[in-house]
Amino acid sequence: MERHSHMKRPTRCNLSVNGIALLRLSALLLMSLLLFTALPARSSAPAPILIGACFAKTGTGAMENSPNFRITQLAAKAINAAGGVLGRPLKIIEFDTMSTPLGARQAALGAIDAEVVAVVGPSWSSQGIPMAKELQKAGIPMIGTTTTAAEVTQVGDFIFRTCYTDKQQAKALATFARQDLNATRAAVMTIAGDVYSEGFSAAFISKFTELGGTLTVQSRYLQDAMDFTPQVNAILANKPDIVFAAGFTRDSGLLLKQSRKSGIAVPFLGGDGWSPLERYPYLNPADGDNYYSSHWHRDMDTPSNRHFIALLKQELGEEAPATIDAGIPNTFDAVGLIAEAIRRAKSTEPAKIRDALETIENYEGVTGTISFRTSRDPLKSVIILQITNRGAEFVKAVTSP
């Protein structure tokens, strides 16, 4: 029995060795599994390039501003459908300026916190300046869309725009008033303290008087005004040949309605702030001649505009090109310019995007040919439109430095 027990020992010993080997193998497999799961998961999709869109969703400017968000998304969608930029898709992050300078500053700070590489917007110069100050400090390029006040791009070298300046459109309108409408006496209506309206009014008065015209009266009002009796009375008392109203959609529409109701039949002129006015419920275009300077018209026959019109119809319906605000295509161009700058820079670093933007020459945009040169203000044609019962009709294009 002792010999029998002795003969069993090697068998027990071999089983123990095999067990240890199995335990070691299991441990190695477990460690490999833990190591694999600890590694970061690989994404099949490239990280998007973040671009901020800063416009008014709320407040007095929401009606005319908010469509810009839809257009930034449309532009990004078109670019992404063509392969994106540097193999990465664009992603638009929206920020509400709340129609105020303070809200615009907060929107800029939100875009900075979101680590966007560039910002599109805003629409109004009064919002553009506080936004520009924050983005300039942060070193993030901004492209204003209809921020026409000269002071906007003067904030710093990271600030651009796709629109012409107030000086350019004021010169075009004053020349049109004197040469085409034969006006010699002008009344000017100005929003008190508004950067766009004050600067635009001053530029118009300067050019109109330089051309031999006379300023009969300048009347100021608050942007949220509803009653324009003082302004209407000033027009009636001074008997101008034309009225230049340097306002926006709601205020200018109310001023026009109340003026026409009081029997004022002389032509009214406005700037790009009037862009949606022909569709605004406060205005009946049959009551008098109304002209304004614009950035775009749907009948512009260029490859870029035809492509844009096709996208609009596909995305928003067949009637979209006839109803879109004429300032909106500047937003589409702004997204395109940022994408072009990223391609040229071969980088998403904001400073390199800024450098590339400044080198862009003869970019074929929806609103025309854009070259930034060294001023970051593009030289573009100013389009004069007339509001009729058929909508906004093309009158002439004026190119002035």
Topology:
Blueprint: H1 2-38, E1 49-55, H2 62-65, H3 67-81, E2 90-96, H4 101-113, E3 118-120, H5 125-138, E4 142-144, H6 151-154, E5 159-161, H7 166-179, E6 185-191, H8 195-210, E7 214-221, H9 229-238, E8 242-246, H10 249-261, E9 268-270, E10 290-294, H11 303-316, H12 320-323, H13 329-345, H14 350-357, E11 363-365, E12 368-370, E13 381-388, E14 391-399
Parallel strand pairs: 1-2, 1-3, 3-4, 4-5, 6-7, 6-8, 8-9, 9-10
Antiparallel strand pairs: 10-13, 11-12, 13-14
Helix pairs in contact: 3-13, 4-5, 7-8, 13-14
Give an account of the 3D structure:
With 401 residues, the protein is α/β, with parallel strands linked by helices. Helix content is 46%, strand content 18%. It has 14 helices and 14 strands. It has helices at 2-38, 62-65, 67-81, 101-113, 125-138, 151-154, 166-179, 195-210, 229-238, 249-261, 303-316, 320-323, 329-345, 350-357; strands spanning 49-55, 90-96, 118-120, 142-144, 159-161, 185-191, 214-221, 242-246, 268-270, 290-294, 363-365, 368-370, 381-388, 391-399. Helix 4 packs parallel to helix 5. 47% of the residues are buried. Mean pLDDT is 88; it is low at 1-17 and 33-39.
